[in-house]
Amino acid sequence: MRTASVKRQTKETDITVDLNIDGSGTGSITTGIGFFDHMLMSFTKHGLFDLKLKAKGDLDVDDHHTVEDVGLALGEAFKDALKDKSNIERFGHAIVPMDESLSQVAVDISGRGYSVFNAEFKAEKIGDYSTRMTRHFIDSFARSAGITINVKIEGEDDHHMVEAMFKALAIALYKATAKNEKRGVPSTKGKL
């Protein structure tokens, strides 16, 4: 089983993550940001990851530190669970529609964290979640996990756009982390 536990504690946040990449899509998520919890549960369900995540942050300031640090902690858990990244597919992509929206996500578990994010949101917030934090979550997760992530989202409804993206990210990661014993370390360099 590819599992990891991460604890991240700063003056702004206190986060614990228990991740099983080879799970069944069950989770327990508490961040204090309702919409973000919903997105992370959707991510868990569609990636078939088992995820227990508890975050306490300075939400009296805003949601920035909590969302950023959850991205960093979750990325670290993925990196730890994949260890040397041997016997994985490495690349994954997904196109997910949700009503009028469409999200395209491609990932490369390369060891080089990088993100490209193309989306324009209409509203500043969805519930207590700042839409601008979607880009920041992707970047924090990508850098911490050592995964290249390319995101493109189109649509009219911000809720649908963000949700389609979290689902597409989950499916792309499910494909990229899929086991393939024939691959060895999937790089001509022999190391990722």
TrEMBL record:
UniProt-listed Enzyme Commission number(s): 4.2.1.19
Gene Ontology BP term (one): L-histidine biosynthetic process
Location(s) in or outside the cell: Cytoplasm
Gene3D superfamilies: Imidazole glycerol phosphate dehydratase, domain 1
NCBIfam families hit by this protein: PRK00951.2-1, PRK00951.2-4
Protein name: Imidazoleglycerol-phosphate dehydratase
Entry keywords, A to Z: Amino-acid biosynthesis, Cytoplasm, Histidine biosynthesis, Lyase
PROSITE patterns: IGP_DEHYDRATASE_1, IGP_DEHYDRATASE_2
Species this chain originates from: Methanooceanicella nereidis
Gene designation: hisB
Keyword Amino-acid biosynthesis: yes
Assigned GO CC terms: cytoplasm
Coiled-coil positions: none
Tree of life domain: Archaea
InterPro entries: IGPD_sf, ImidazoleglycerolP_deHydtase, ImidazoleglycerP_deHydtase_CS, Ribosomal_Su5_D2-typ_SF
